[in-house]
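hiii, so i know i said id send this last week but things got crazy w the move. better late than never?? heres the sequnce for the chain we talked about at the cafe, plus the structure i predicted for it. fair warning i was half asleep when i ran it
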Amino acid sequence: MKSILIISILLLLWVILAQSCLKLRMTDTTAREEFTKAGVSLSIKTLKTEDRQLHYVSTGNENFPTILFVHGSPGSWDAFKDYLKDADLLHKYRMIAIDRPGFGYSNFGDALNLKEESYYISPLLKAIQNHQPVYLVGHSLGGPLIVQLAADNPNAINALVILAGAIDASLEKPELWRPLLMNNPLKFLLPGALRPANDELWYLKHDLIELQPHFAKITCPVHIIHGDKDPLVDYGNLAFGAKAFVNAQQLDTLTLQGANHFIPWTRFKEIKKVLLTL
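okay and structure toks below
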């Protein structure tokens, strides 16, 4: 009985702790302080659509062309904070980074599938319109999401940059244990942002199957960048993308030799070079 009591207490403490840790997000106060020290003005806003809110930040001249950054799973807008502070990029672009639905401060914990995410992010594309080009950059799960956004908003997007993106349904092998931690009390055993990440990673294969017909709808230039040593998203996604975007005005692929999944941070210079060519 004593052992059961100890285990029960430890389990309860873990459930309580799990909901407060690993949220993988930067507070607005901390973000403002960091960008102020870097000498960069940071605008923080929230766009409300129906019953949800989309938290996002922006830097740069509002009259410049826009780069919209979309993070992976889990994550939040600050995954791209170094890009938003970069002097060369600021000289050319207005840059915006979002907390995807279910992460950061965008209804944290409540994950959606790709179609639903696109539905709630699409109003932002209208809200930020300044009659200048708009370029989407998506990392990991953000890769297929920007494809969905481009398909749902024809003529609104001027280029896609897919960073280690999971876009090939055949390469997705969802772990069978994921549903056991969804839609029941067991989900609270997952800490912080891992809970919504678990949900959307389970949705992903089905989402990608439904996304396949939409690749042909993409007519803007597409840039696919992937590391050949990526242990999380198969490098084969690059070859798939090279064949799938049959109507892209321009298609460029870049293999980063020896790079893993975390190329937005480990291969900043190479990615920045591509962004400056948009």
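btw Residues 2-275 form a domain with the Rossmann fold fold (CATH 3.40.50.1820). thought thatd interest u
miss u guys!!
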